[in-house]
Amino acid sequence: MGRLIYSMFTSLDGYASDTSGSSDWGGALDPNLHDFVSEQTRSVGTYLYGRRMYETMSFWETALDAPDAPEFVRTYAAVWQAASKVVYSTTLDAPTTARTTLERTFDPEAVRAQVSALDHDATIDGPTLAAHALRAGIVDEVQPYLAPVSVGGGLRFWPEDLRLDLELLVERRFDNGTLWLRYAVRRD
């Protein structure tokens, strides 16, 4: 049975991207941290994306084509390309990457059933789409990468007006000050 995991970089003040839409401050270019992200996502066989996150992540479709790409980039690109992707969008005409399907609506009950039937984990990526899944109560784990920066505004990591009770399972600190936290979502 697959788990649905919400995991991405967030600033200390709770933003997944800043007011300019950037998340370059997240630390994903740190080779050790990037290798850890690659290792953590090996269990993920399906990525669920909103359109904006999908467009950002589609970089990985061609990352192996760059002859000077560092090994940590090549490693993550191979992991990403091996997984299936589902994009939820009403505005995207067609997917631009392999192993990708397009869905027009996000149906939490259908997503929960699909993830439960998987023999691997799935992630829900992008705070806007994740907010729907968190509110619907279908997220099993939240795994933020807490970057040592305050950005002052932007796109929030957590949806407003949502209470979640979480159980800390694991934490890991990195030399660049990033903290990875793995929480189970408690259900009553």
Description:
Residues 4-177 form the Bacterial bifunctional deaminase-reductase C-terminal domain. It comes from Georgenia faecalis. The protein is an alpha/beta fold and 188 residues long. The chain has a single domain (4-185), classed as Dihydrofolate Reductase, subunit A, CATH 3.40.430.10. The protein has helices at 31-40, 51-57, 71-82, 108-116, 127-136, and strands at 4-6, 9-11, 15-17, 44-50, 84-88, 100-103, 121-125, 141-142, 145-147, 155-156, 166-173, 179-185. The strands form two sheets. Strands 1, 2, 4, 5, 6, 7, 8, 9, 11 and 12 form a ten-stranded mixed sheet that branches. A hairpin with a 5-residue loop joins β11 and β12 (179-185). 30% of the residues are buried.
Task: Jot down its keywords.
188 residues, ten-stranded mixed sheet, two-stranded antiparallel sheet, 26% helix, globular, RibDG_C, Dihydrofolate reductase family protein, Riboflavin_Biosynth_HTPR, DHFR-like_dom_sf
Brief rundown of the structure:
The chain has 188 residues and is α/β, with parallel strands linked by helices.
| Secondary-structure content class | alpha/beta
Strand element count: 12
Principal-axis shape equals globular
> What's the tally of helices?
5
Query: What is the ordering of alpha helices and beta strands?
Result: EEEHEHHEEHEHEEEEE
Q: Compute the number of structural domains.
A: 1
Q: Describe the main β-sheet briefly.
A: 10 strands, mixed
Low-confidence stretches: none
Instruction: Output the CATH homologous superfamily.
Output: Dihydrofolate Reductase, subunit A
Mean pLDDT metric: 95
CATH class category:
Alpha Beta
Quote the CATH topology.
Answer: Dihydrofolate Reductase, subunit A
Q: Cα distance, first to last residue?
A: 20 Å
So, CATH architecture? 3-Layer(aba) Sandwich
